[in-house]
Write a structure and sequence with these properties.
Elements lengths: L4 E7 L3 H12 L4 E5 L5 H6 L1 H19 L10 H11 L6 H9 L3 E4 L2 E5 L2 E4 L2 E10 L3 E3 L12 E2 L1 H6 L6 E5 L3 H12 L3 E6 L10 H13 L3 E4 L3 E7 L2 E6 L4 E4 L1 E4 L3 E3 L26 E3 L2 E3 L10 H15 L12 E4 L4 E6 L2 H6 L4 E7 H4 L2 H5 L7 E7 L4 E9 L2 H4 L1 H8 L4 H4 L13 H9 L1
Parallel strand pairs: 1-2, 1-6, 2-3, 6-18, 8-15, 9-10, 9-15, 10-11
Antiparallel strand pairs: 4-5, 5-6, 7-16, 12-13, 13-14, 17-18, 19-20, 20-23, 21-22, 22-23
Helix pairs in contact: 1-9, 3-4, 3-7
C-alpha cells in the first residue's frame, strides 16, 4: 500500500462515522477518517448532547417542585451553561483526534469529494480505498418565508449554543426538536411561543400523544399557535416578527427554526457514482447499508429514521458486512423519544400506519395515574401520564407503543424488544414487572388488548 491507500475511508465523524471507524480499527483495518468540522459531529456539539444537558436542570427543578419535602431549587443559567460547555468539550476535539490517531487512523481535515470509485479527494489529497463510508449527517431545513433572512434566526446550533437566554422566542415547528427547545428556553425564563402549521404537535405520533404534549407545554406557560402557518417575517429595530396566515403577528428577540433536517450529500460527488439519491438528496442503501460502487451509507445521510441511535446501528450493520459477517438491518422497533418533563417515547407504528398497511388492529390506552401506585410515589399530584399500545389483531403481536410519563425513554424499550422479537401478547402477560414502577403499566395495557 502507498501512504494514501486504505481499506476504508470514513467521510463524516459524527456518531455513525465514529462507530464505523472504531469497529474497523479494532478489526485491524487501515482507516482514514475525514471530518469537515469536529469529530463527534452535530450530535456531540450542537444537538443531542447540549440539548439534553440543557433540559436536565429544568426537568429536575420541575420534579423537585412536584415532590413534597423538597425545596425547589432555583435554576442557575450560568452554572447550566458551564455544564453545557463542558459537555460539548468547549468545541474542541483535540482529544478525539489524538484518540483516533493513537488507534492507527489517519485523521484528515477538510471537505471530501469522491472523484471516482474508491478515490476520495480532500483539499488536493487523494485517498484510495476499497470502501467509502458516507456518514455526513444532515443540515437544517430553512423554510421559504419572506423576510426571514432579515431577522434574528437560530437553527439548532444557536439554540443549543447560546450564551444569554433571550427574553422572547418564537419557535417555528411542531417536531420533537421544537418541543424540547421550547421546554428548556421557557425553563430558563424565556417567553416562548410555538408555531405549527398543522393542528397538533408531533404529527408522526398518535394524536393522543400530541394532545398530551400540548397540555404539558401549556402548563409550563408556553403559548401554542397550532394550525397557523408563517407567511412573512420582518425586522423592526431589535425585534424579529412573524406574520401568521390567520393575520396575527408574533414579535420576539429570536426566531428558532425547528423545521426538520435534510441529508447532507451535496458536493460529495455521489451523483457521478453508481448510487441513488432520492428527491431529498438521501443516499439509498440496501439492508446491509450498502449503496453500491464500493460506497456505504450510515446515519442521517440515508434519510432513514434520522436519529443518533440509528446512525450507530447502521454503522454496526455496514461494518459487519465489510468484515464478512453480514446482518440485515431492521427498523421496526426503533424507539423515538422527546426528552423533557414528562418524557414522550414511542416505538413501532401508530394506529393509522398499521391500518394503512392492511392490518386489523386492536388498541388500548391506560391512564397510569389511575392504574398505578408509582406516579403517586413519584410526585404529589401526577397528571397526564399515559401508555398506549397497538397490536395486530390477527397475530396477537405488538406493532406499536407510546408513553407520556416520567422516564419513558428508559422503559419504552420493553415494548421495543417485544416488537422486535415478536413476543406474543400472552407471553408478555407472563412477565412480572417490579412494584412500584411505571413498567407495571404494560399489564393493564396488554390486558386491554384482549378485551
Amino acid at each position: 500500500m502507498t501512504d494514501d491507500a486504505y481499506e476504508a475511508v470514513v467521510i463524516g465523524m459524527g456518531p455513525g462515522g465514529e462507530v464505523a471507524a472504531t469497529r474497523l480499527l479494532q478489526a485491524g483495518k487501515r482507516v482514514a477518517v475525514v471530518e469537515r468540522e469536529l469529530i463527534g459531529g452535530e450530535c456531540g456539539y450542537w444537538a443531542c448532547i447540549p440539548s439534553k444537558t440543557l433540559l436536565r436542570p429544568v426537568e429536575l427543578a420541575l420534579q423537585a417542585a412536584a415532590a413534597p419535602g423538597v425545596t425547589t431549587p432555583p435554576l442557575d443559567w450560568e452554572a447550566a451553561r458551564q455544564w453545557r460547555d463542558a459537555m460539548v468539550r468547549h468545541l474542541d476535539d483535540a482529544k478525539q483526534v489524538a484518540g483516533y490517531e493513537d488507534q492507527g487512523a489517519t485523521v484528515v481535515r477538510g471537505e471530501a469529494r469522491i472523484v471516482g470509485p474508491g478515490v476520495v479527494e480532500v483539499d488536493g489529497r487523494r485517498l484510495v480505498t476499497q470502501h467509502v463510508i458516507v456518514a455526513t449527517g444532515s443540515r437544517p431545513v430553512v423554510p421559504e418565508i419572506e423576510g426571514l433572512d432579515e431577522c434574528t434566526v437560530w437553527t439548532n446550533r444557536e439554540a443549543t449554543g447560546f450564551e444569554e437566554v433571550p427574553g422572547r422566542v418564537v419557535v417555528i415547528g411542531a417536531s420533537a426538536v421544537a418541543v424540547e427547545v421550547a421546554q428548556y428556553l421557557a425553563g430558563y425564563g424565556a417567553q416562548v411561543t410555538l408555531v405549527g402549521r398543522g393542528p397538533r404537535l408531533l404529527r408522526r405520533e398518535e394524536p393522543r400523544v400530541g394532545e398530551l404534549a400540548a397540555e404539558h407545554l401549556r402548563a409550563r406557560g408556553i403559548d401554542l399557535r397550532l394550525g397557523a402557518g408563517p407567511v412573512r417575517a420582518f425586522k423592526d429595530g431589535a425585534d424579529s416578527s412573524l406574520v401568521l396566515d390567520d393575520g396575527s403577528v408574533l414579535t420576539a428577540d429570536v426566531l428558532v427554526l425547528a423545521t426538520g433536517r435534510r441529508p447532507r450529500t451535496e458536493g460529495l460527488g455521489l451523483e457521478e457514482l453508481e448510487v441513488t439519491l432520492d428527491g431529498h438528496g438521501a443516499l439509498a442503501v440496501d439492508e446491509h447499508c450498502h449503496a453500491g460502487a464500493g460506497v456505504w451509507g450510515v446515519g442521517d445521510v440515508t434519510g432513514t429514521a434520522m436519529f443518533t441511535h440509528v446512525a450507530k446501528y447502521q454503522a454496526r450493520i455496514a461494518t459487519a458486512a465489510i468484515l464478512g459477517r453480514p446482518r440485515t438491518a431492521r427498523y421496526d422497533s426503533v424507539p423515538r423519544v422527546v426528552f423533557g418533563h414528562p418524557e414522550i417515547a414511542a416505538v413501532g407504528m401508530i394506529e393509522e400506519q398499521a391500518v394503512a398497511g392492511g392490518r386489523r388492529v386492536r388498541t388500548s390506552q391506560v391512564d397510569l395515574t389511575a392504574a398505578l401506585a408509582r406516579p403517586w410515589t413519584y410526585e404529589e399530584e401526577p397528571t397526564g401520564a399515559w401508555l398506549g399500545l397497538v397490536a395486530d389483531a390477527d397475530t396477537d403481536l405488538l406493532v406499536g407503543a407510546w408513553a407520556v410519563a416520567p422516564q419513558a425513554s428508559e422503559w419504552i424499550h420493553q415494548a421495543a424488544l417485544a416488537i422486535g422479537a415478536a413476543i406474543p401478547i400472552d407471553r408478555l402477560l407472563d412477565h412480572v414487572p417490579q412494584f412500584p414502577t411505571y413498567s407495571e403499566g404494560f399489564v393493564p395495557a396488554l390486558e386491554g388488548l384482549l378485551d
